[in-house]
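#struct-help
A.M.: can someone run this one for me? Single chain, 283 residues.
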Amino acid sequence: MQTVTLNNGVEVPILGFGTFQITDAQQAETAVIEAIKAGYRHIDTAQSYMNEEAVGRGIAKSGVAREELFITTKIWVENVSYDGALSSFERSLQRLGLDYIDLLLIHQPYSDVYGAWRAMQTLQKQGKVRAIGISNFAVDRAVDLAEFNDMTPQVNQIEINPFQQQTKNIAALKAEGIMPEAWAPFAEGKNDIFHNAILVAIGAKYNKSVAQVITRWLIEQDVIVLAKSVKPERMSENLDVFDFELTEADKQKIAELNEGESQFFSHTDPEMIRWMASRKMDV
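D.P.: on it. Structure tokens below:
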């Protein structure tokens, strides 16, 4: 598996398996087992996904040594404070059944992110977390966090897909030493992406699916990709992307698809912020 290196020297498998919206416990456990069997070594979960226990069981039953796996979880909004980050991290660790986490993220750019960041720096110094980062932060918020603290975020997990390409933000994050990581690379199927004429045509040239074209497009930008599927055949397909390369013409055609806005919601929308503040999940 190809890897990328974070600003603290930690290596991350460039392809990760996402578990968002896999809420059924048995399905989540099985999906993790199958993903690891397919070849994934990077598993992404979060407190708000409500599946950390199932993901942990899948990891334990996979038969793969812990040190060969890269596990990410995220601190939900209600726990974003110094004390909240420390205590909720311990609960996540217990639910996952692990001794340490490879990557810990602040899930949303709200509440006491500075207090939570100081707590995460402490966890990293203690060896309980190998890398720390953020998710859904604008570049200026990421730089602000870095400049007024001891550590620069190692990762920023953001929405990146053909309709929301974030080209300038990817470049700006990399200039700050922050690795971009793509959630919803397939836009969760929005805009009928799997039948998009441009992507289908590019895929046909290489005998690849639309999902494989998108994954390859992100890999060639050195962006970590999180793909989700509960189907073993799709898991294997999403990993089979290292035997072809896109041409500049292919990339220019993909650039034409960029709409320059989220396919889901804006993180600067006051109503969305209020909704997240009210979403108590007891995690």
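A.M.: thanks! The first strand starts at residue 3 and ends at 5.
D.P.: also worth noting: Residues 82-96 form the longest helix (15 residues).
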